[in-house]
Each structure stands twice: as C-alpha cells, then as structure tokens.
From TrEMBL:
This is 3-dehydroquinate dehydratase. One of its GO terms (molecular function) is 3-dehydroquinate dehydratase activity. Its EC number is 4.2.1.10. Gene3D superfamilies: Dehydroquinase, class II. It is an enzyme of class 4 (lyase). Keywords: Lyase. One of its GO terms (biological process) is quinate catabolic process. The keyword Membrane does not apply. The lineage of its organism: unclassified sequences, metagenomes, ecological metagenomes. The keyword Lyase applies. NCBIfam families: PRK05395.1-2, PRK05395.1-4.
Length: 144
C-alpha cells in the first residue's frame, strides 16, 4: 500500500482558534480525521504529524525519504526562512519521492516576508490558498 506522510510545522496544532479569519475554524484534530478518511477511501496509508521543532520536522522528512513515502508538507513559518528544512526537502525529492508544499492561506497575498519560500525550489509542487482543501488537493494529486 502506498504511504503518504503529512507534516505540519509550528503553530498548526492551533488551527481552529488561531486567526480563524485566515486559517478557518476547523481544528487540527478534525483536519487529521478528514485526511485519514480520504486516505482510506483512496486506498493509501496516511500518517499525520505536527511539530513546532525544526529538528523534529527534519528527522521526519529523513524518515520519509528512507521509507520512500511521499510527503504533504505545510512548513508554516519555517517555509520562509529555514534553509535546513529546505535542504531536507531537496534530499527527499532528489531521492525520487514526491513532496507537495501546502498552505492553508495564500502567502503571496499576505505580508512581504511570506512571499519567499525556501521550500518551493525543492518541492514537486505547491498548493496554497484553498483552506484545508489544499491538503485534500495534494492527497488527490499523490494518488492520481
Ligand atoms: C501557512 C502560511 C505561513 O506563512 C504561516 O507562517 C503559517 C501557515 C499557511 O498554511 O497558510 O503558519 O503555512
């Protein structure tokens, strides 16, 4: 069975209460349940993890690389400045596995610092601005 790992970066466990006008009112636990339900319907194995730690996210990216799993990744604020996470994403996609960068909001329509992504150059593709549907669109893409 195909394996997909969904990784979420800092502050995304606060979904539902964090800036609901930008990120919506759905909480993180519900997001994971929705993703798991869709994965079951699509016949793939899905594991979702969230961390505020750059080091932990890098370890999980390396684990995905070593197991050959595709990754759906919302690096949150690390998107904009973590070269270490960008490098881990590069290692992942250069291994031949896919990595889709996702964002709930459209960072390009927001503050200037959000317009830079150090992850996008290493990503297979980027989906942003569709709320939690950004994750579902990525899941569809990885299973099509
Ligand atoms: C985000 C956008 C980032 O700029 C921000 O730091 C986040 C969430 C998004 O999903 O829209 O934490 O990645």
């Amino acid at each position: 069975m195909k394996s997909i790992v969904v990784l979420n970066g800092p502050n995304l466990q606060r979904l539902g209460s964090r800036e609901p006008d930008i990120y919506g009112t759905l909480d993180y636990t519900t997001l994971v349940s929705i993703l798991e339900k869709h994965a079951t319907e699509l016949g793939v194995s899905l594991t979702a993890k969230q961390s505020d730690s750059e080091s932990e996210l890098i370890s999980w990216l390396h684990e995905a690389t070593d197991s050959g799993a595709d990754v759906i990744f919302n690096p949150a604020a690390f998107t904009h400045y973590s070269y270490a996470i960008g490098d881990a994403c590069k290692i992942h996609t250069e291994s031949g596995a896919k990595l889709i960068e996702v964002h709930i909001s459209n960072p390009h329509s927001r503050e200037e610092f959000r317009k830079t992504s150090v992850v996008s150059p290493a990503a297979t593709g980027v989906i942003a601005g569709f709320g939690i549907d950004s994750y579902l669109l990525a899941l569809r893409q990885l299973t099509s």
